[in-house]
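Suppose you are handed only two things: the residues of a chain and a line of SMILES describing pyridoxal-5'-phosphate. What would the bound structure be? This form records exactly that question and the answer produced for it, so the two can be stored side by side and reused later without any lookup.

QUESTION INPUTS
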Amino acid sequence: MSRVAHPAGPRHADVLPADYPPAPPADLNALHPAIWPRSAVRRDGVLTLGAVDVRDLAGEFGTPVFVTDEDDVRGRCQEYMEAFGGDATGAQVYYAAKAFCSRAVLRWVADEGLGVDVCTGGELEVALTAGIDPAKITLHGNNKLPAELARAVAAGIGHVVLDSYEEIARLAYYAEQAGVRPRVLVRVTTGVEAHTHEFMATAHDDQKFGFSLASGAADEAVRRVLALPALEFAGLHSHIGSQIFDTAGFEVAAHRVVDLAARIATEHGVDVSELDLGGGFGIAYTPEDDPPDVKSLAAGLQAIVTAQCAAFGLPLPRLTIEPGRGIVGPSTVTLYEVGTIKDVDGIRTYVSVDGGMSDNIRTALYDASYTCALASRSSAAPPMLTRIVGRHCESGDIVVRHCYLPSDLAPGDLLAVAATGAYCWSLASNYNHLPRPGVVAVRDGSAREIVRRETVADLLRLDVG
Ligand SMILES: Cc1ncc(COP(=O)(O)O)c(C=O)c1O
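ANSWER OUTPUT
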């Protein structure tokens, strides 16, 4: 995945990469098991999800539509719980709701034993109204509004992750008013930033989240928390990035955080009883992506924390992680209907679908890669190099940059884009006044809408001028 920032304005197809065109896959109808939801199979050539035919889903719920395999989400929750839940520290897994936040999904993850991590008052209300036990909710955010802090305190949520000096004082005020003592974690900026296949361990203090270790701000934040009897200091938090494929970055971050824990023990005689290493565990979007399985990830992180604590002579804290993408990302596909097919001679074929950057901004925002397949039928036609584009007034409105599809593709065919469960619906917009798609959960041959498709009437209701 390239992370090169692109200049303002369209510059999407004018420079062809040296390895262009990419090689076509051996079988256009194949569904790579690491990329597609676990229930995805072709029956008589047609993609089915949760044993439901995608043509029926499109007919009943319209397109574009996000289709979520409930058993896939639950299965991944179970794997995280088994991998992380069984260690001596009583490690805990919190689902990062920012990846996709709906009541149904929060209930599934809670059923499987996970806590829920929210980062705004809105996400907090979804969790509370879904019936999530407040004690198993953690509140994040670099600028939690005073009303959000007051609500979190009143609801009795389990942890607040503190992100600024102002917030330490504000939370203590609301806790005193309510006569409660919230457990807090201090978010530490370790200077480590990690993404797929690489990590950098310098120069990333220049960001809005957390208290810098390098500047001493993290030590000072802990001092201030410990000086306030209204707050219960539980431990430290560190989140180093996203779509991470190895544990090297976590090792450097854990080393630095445990070093701080040692200073806290020396200066204050206080143990850090909880260590939250955040989320960021990678998933496969294309066949080239090869994320580690959750078991080896857990073993790696637990070994790192154990070794670092032993090196500093500290008791083992309770380890917490906060996966978002790793829980919901692979569970979901977006179904689109093909509208137009335009051959741009000698370069590629542009396939326009009925959604676009308003339901998946990740390609435009991060140059993300996706896998796409013809879903409503299989085909033996030869491969055709396509670019899947949306229907917005932007030439950067690209859903899938390079994708081989059968050359007999026709308007009305359904396309499925895989691994759209994380950061697609949650980043969706109404750009060009497109209503946001619904989200449909499938399981054992039945389908139900868990987030209703928006209508133009919904949008007009907000326009009160
Ligand atoms: C503090 C924190 N925790 C957890 C996550 C979840 O990350 P991911 O979905 O990559 O696992 C994020 C994502 O930005 C985050 O900022």
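WHAT STANDS OUT: The pocket of pyridoxal-5'-phosphate is lined by residues 96, 98-99, 140, 239, 242, 278-281, 322-326, 422 (CB under 6 Å). Confidence is low (pLDDT under 50) at residues 1-11.
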